[in-house]
Amino acid sequence: MDWSTLPWDKIYIIVTVIVSGTGIMFGVAAPAIGQAIVAYGGLKALSRQPEAGDRINSMVLLSLAMLESLAIYVLAVILILVFANPMRSFILGA
Predict the structure, then answer these.
(1) Residue 60: what pLDDT?
(2) pLDDT at residue 56 is higher than 80
(3) How many domains is the chain partitioned into structurally?
(4) Which listed site, 38, 42, 57, 78, has its alpha carbon 20 to 30 Å from 7?
């Protein structure tokens, strides 16, 4: 494929899809790894101190909520990039 003959609107769509896919990949993988680490730490702490289970449970759930919010922010940014990209009119000249 010769990129020099490809129209700008097609290049824009290709680049947007590649960047969005990469962003989702890293933006979901990082919180998933973080959630696994938090869950592992919570279970490890719970096995060492079962009497502190309520406090450990609340801290783990709070940490998991913070990590999940990161994935939701990534999703919001990617959806803006795909559907309401502010650079579209600048790049395509429309």
Answers:
(1) 96
(2) yes
(3) 1
(4) 78
